[in-house]
Each structure stands twice: as C-alpha cells, then as structure tokens.
C-alpha cells in the first residue's frame, strides 16, 4: 500500500469500557451505505479493540448488548442527521436515512479513537449545511492545478484511475461528513471535456458507485463550450434552441450512464473560460440552460461567481477586481432556477491570507449560495508552511451581513437558515494528491479534516476540531496534543504576520504564487495592486475611490468606507494610507509592517522548536517529513520578512524604531 490512512490510522487501545458494544451490530444491511457503516465499525473494532464483530440482521432482543443501526423517521432527524444513545449495554445509532447511519457510525468510532466511553452516550447531530463538497482541480494528465501534494489519484495519462486509493479517499471524505466531490479541474480542457462521453463515462460511473457506497455524490466540472467541442455546433449560445436541445439530450445520456451523478460545477467567462458573455447573454441565461437540462434527473448546477476582468489596465484606478463578483451577479438575484447554486469565494479577490468577506453573501436574497474556501493553501504556504485555516473559516462563517434582522451571518445564509434555501452549503478546493500522506505536509491534513468537520458542524471551535484531529492522527499523549495544538493555532496568525500586511495581499511571485515579490503583480493585468508610493500604500475602495465598500449592507458599508473605523487588519484593502498613520495599537503603519514581519519569523521558529521537542513521541517518518518543512518555513518566513521590510525601508527612508537589521 503506497499511502497512509491519515486520521483513520487506528491504534490499539486497552479499553474495556467499550469492548462489549462492538461484539455485535444489529440492523438491515442490504442497502450499500448501511453495509458500509457495518464494515467501518467492524474494521475499527478489530484494529482498535481487537474485537471480532458479529453481524446480526434485524433488531436486538430485549437485554441484548451491541450496536443497533436503524433509520427512524420518528427521531426528527434530517436524512443525514444521527442520534447516538446508550442504554443498558445497547448503543443505538438512529438516523433519518442511511447516510446519517454512516456519519453516526464514524462518530461512534471517534469515541474509540479519542478515548471516550460510550456508556451513557447521548449525541444528536443534524448537519449544519446541506452540501459539503470538495472541489478537486485535477487534470487528465495527472497534474493538479494548485496541487502541492503529488499528482492526481483520479487521473493519469488521460485515463480515469480506479484502485484501492479511490476507496481509501472515499473513507476519509465520508468520515468527516463530506457528501459531494468534484473530481476534475474547473478549468476544463482537452479530454476532461469528454468525461461526459464514452469511453470515460463508464469509468466515471464506476467511481461514482464507490462514492455512493460512502454517501458521496460525484460531480463533474463542465465545459460550457462542449456543444462546439463535442457536437457539430459553431455556437454555445445558451438561448439557441438547438444548443439547448443538444444539452438536454446529452444530459439524458450522462445521467443514464452515471446514476450517482450529482450535477456539474461550471466556471464561465473567467480567466479565458468560455461562457454566455460571448453571445451577449448573462450568467442566469447560461446557468438556467444547463439547469433545465439536468433537472429531470435531480441534477444541480453549481455556477462559480469567480468572474472578473483579467485584462485590467494598471493605470486605471477606478476598475476594481474586487467589485466584479457583485457587479456581475447581484442584479441577477431571483432569476436563477431553483436547481442552480452560485458558488461564491469567501472573499472578493482570491483566497488571500486576509481579505473581507464577499459582499454577495447578504446581497442576494432569492438565490441559492454555497461558500467556497480553499484548503490547498495556494496563497498560504502551499502545504510547505503549516497554516491551519479553520480559525479563518470560522471568522468568515461568523461574519454578520445585516441582510436580515436575525440569522444574518454567512453561516446562516449557507446553511439555509436565513431564507429557507434547500441547496446551499460549503465547498473547499481540495489539498490532496498521491503523496503517501495525502497532503504533503502532515499538518496540512488538519485542514482537510477540519473543513469536513466544520462544514458538518459549524458550531465546533477551531480548537475542538484540531484536538480531535491530533488525537485521531497521533494518539492521546497529552504533550503531543498540547504542542501540536499550539503549533496549529498560532500558524495562521504567524503566516499573516510575515505575509502581506493589513489585508493588502498579493505580494507574491506571479503565476506560481509562492514566495515574496512585492511588485510582482503591481503592473500586471490581473487587478491585484498595492499602489505603494513614497508616502503610503493601499487601494482606495471607499466611495471616493472604486466604491467597493458600498457594496455591503449597512452598517458594514460605513464601517469599511471610513478610514478610522475600518478594522486595522483590512485597512490597506479599503484605503490608501500614509505610512505615518497610527493604527489602534498606537503604531504607525510602517512600524506595524516591520514589527509583524519580525514577529512572524519568531513564531515560525517557535513552531519548529515545539515540533522538535516531540522527537520520539510521534512516528519517525512523520517527524522527519514535518521537520523538513518546518525548517523550510523558518527560512522562507525570514525571506518574506527581509524582502517586505527592505522594500518599504527603501521606499520611505524611515528606519525601524527598534534598530533591527533591514537591508
């Protein structure tokens, strides 16, 4: 086996309190997901407790001990919700549907992994979000766009891969509550366009069946121009009747061949991808054409809102990439069909270490929305730096949009609580590859695990999720738990300190987005500027500048529009600020830049020291892999510090108040 089991690497426990429950499992096992639940319990019992589990069909007799898996419509649970309870030696995992049974079974297994007793257990969970999806940017040649942990395990040499790793991946995803997976890159090119046809569709169907056994629906990224590339058309106009009929016929074929297909993810009219703009149509026209074609089969269309002018003139101070998502979509509110979901990035730019929450959240009251985040760490260290992102995601979910008097947070909107939407949730750009540990950096697995757990249960804290992952992955040694938790919780703030300051973002090398390059994008077409001169830096997005701040509901619009009330951590995102401007800390902007970059390096060094103190307490192979990356992180953080600080010292001629070395 050329891969590890990540947080499902079970280890023996001398645990007599739980052994009695795992000797027998009762239930009806004909349904594939129910059977999967039994197999997972059986495997955990054998590997953790050294117990052989007996499968017993039907309900237990009075006085029986064991685990009873049952769907129960009277439990007031959603189809994916579960209720674990223990009474007199019998653990009951009840659920609204079979997927709930599977999630409840994995929750029961977490009891074993984390050393908790099932005696007297009482746990009721309904998932916070209807859709919990991983977006893979995998290409048919085996490469992964923005992939930092090896090659694809879905594709290789223009073929679809089906092997034992496919099942292992499905186990990992289901164990944390993922119920949808997009297997191919949103930038659909070449043979990826043909995944909806033979010979590929049969292999996709085989993969979809494996996913279905784990309660996961398979999605594909779709090429909007497919009628031209696969058919005989010279147009992909969404209002052309022949084009619409072609899509309807094609979808009839596709859903017949791939029964567990959930639908399609579409990137259109962005970064060179084809879309309705070519034909003078809008995004509602494009999305609705596809939605009509998939609706008879229960399919959904997830339409990305990452649409902007990537031919911007850097001399133009009014055109603003940050405005584009709202400008393109807000006026279309209410026009999308009910099986269309708009997938909105957490911020208006592109997964920076700090940016404001996207104003489309709270800006569209009659449209299904799903929150898109990125765990692939494209701009947060590319899985060479440890950067635990769950604290960031919790801040995003907690953001108040003021779109209604109550239940107005991003979490409320994407859960469906605000407007009663049925199709909504969270999606993450995935961080997996064929590396032996799945995620390159062993600690990057905390983001994969954490996204699943947070999307299933958004009231969990970042600390709770991290501790759970640590114990499931490394065991429950208290020193290991405490020190890795400290590393994880200080990692995102540390990265922000030595990265671009105060929300400005983008000071990275173009194209591959790794390492400091202050002016790398400053005169480019991508709209990602910092506007630094000898007096100050930042982009004026107030009503005196690009007007972006006014896309928010009040009081957020006024908060961001005013320089003094704007939060310091976003000051440079919204305003062009003098270097001598004093932040709430009392420091000038320039001194803040100097201080945080020195502090960030010190934090990186501290994380490395904490890890080194665990030598001999974690598996040697993991210790060595992670240490190598932490050593790189310390060096790279120093490179960030020296380049950023030197740039602004040379720009201003103002030295560091503490007299530290700046080049």
UniProtKB/TrEMBL annotation:
Gene coding for it: aguA_1
One GO cellular component term noted in the UniProt record for this chain: extracellular region
Secretion signal, residue range per the UniProt entry: none
E.C. no: 3.2.1.131
Domain of life: Bacteria
Enzyme class: hydrolase
A GO term, aspect molecular function: alpha-glucuronidase activity
Key word Hydrolase present: yes
Any one of the GO BP annotations: xylan catabolic process
Residue ranges annotated for the Glycosyl hydrolase family 67 C-terminal domain, each copy included: 439-660
Stretches assigned to the Glycosyl hydrolase family 67 catalytic domain: 112-438
Pfam families: Glyco_hydro_67C, Glyco_hydro_67M
Active-site residues per Swiss-Prot or TrEMBL entry: 271 (proton donor), 350 (proton acceptor), 378 (proton acceptor)
Keywords for the protein's UniProt record, in alphabetical order: Glycosidase, Hydrolase
PANTHER family found in the cross-reference section: ALPHA-GLUCURONIDASE A
Species whose genome carries this gene: Acetatifactor muris
Protein name in the entry: Xylan alpha-(1->2)-glucuronosidase
